[in-house]
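Handoff note, outgoing to incoming analyst
You'll be picking up this chain. Sequence as last confirmed:
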Amino acid sequence: MAAKESYLRMLPTGTREPLRKLFNSGAELNNRINLSKAETTGLTMSGAMTTGILMSGATTTGISLTGAATTGINFAGTYSGNGIDFSSCTYTPTGSNGPCLIRAGSYGTPLAMTSEAQSGLIRLYMENTAAGTSYDRGIFVCLKTQNVKGIFPIAGLAEVKNCASTAGPNKVQAAQFICHLNDAGAKLAALGGDPTAGMYAGWFKIGAIDGATTASGSRAAPLWVDNELYGGSNINAEMEEYGIFMTAGGTVPKAVIGFETNQYAAGWASLFYFDETCYNKPPVSAAAPETSEKDADGSLLLNLNETIYYIPYYGANKLVT
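Most recent structure output, in case you need it:
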């Protein structure tokens, strides 16, 4: 305690007593602050300040919260800028386990939870009453690459493990995107000539500017849908599995799929494309029903309430012009 009093005597008079109380509460100064007593609030900063906490030395862990707490860190001030900002840090991740700026658990050791209450890792709510033509983004991620390393700005993985229940969950969805006019007074404005305007649960776009190149054998699409349900006899034949599942329960949509091009696009080369791996595999059939005009080259299968119908298709040499 004598060393601490010697330290306090070097400080201005007005700051001695607050620090003396801090020491007596269980805090120690040894190039750190260690709050070890059980308190409702561990550390409070309530005045206007340019920098609340400054840690400039090399350290393994800058701030460690290890005690039981209802709220670990609480931000209650008024912020006109960024609440948390990593912009000035030097980011040099090491290791193969996905080091990152913010982490909770790992793939091999996820956070353990047994609560039935609806919870999660990140939950954000905001409501804007401003007027104008701008917009807000709840979460915006921009990744850039200048070499061969791939980038995935947002990725989600939903895995079902060994189930204690014989039935398992009936909701397994890696992502949910929902737009909703959720009040009787809610409105949707006209496009107003803006091709990017509209109400969409998801906008998926690919693009390239003049001068960009794509290699022969490369592939690009705004959306990739991939079905890979394995399991042999464990996969129930009576289940419903689709490449894309659509429902409609409100107004009658104009079409299942809508198409629109602009002055820079020439349309689409074909409505569907099946490569050589799909020949004579459903829904493409080499069987061709005869017609009153010319024999078809094959047919596409259509299932209407468990009854298969055949839509014939013809090669270009059989087209009537």
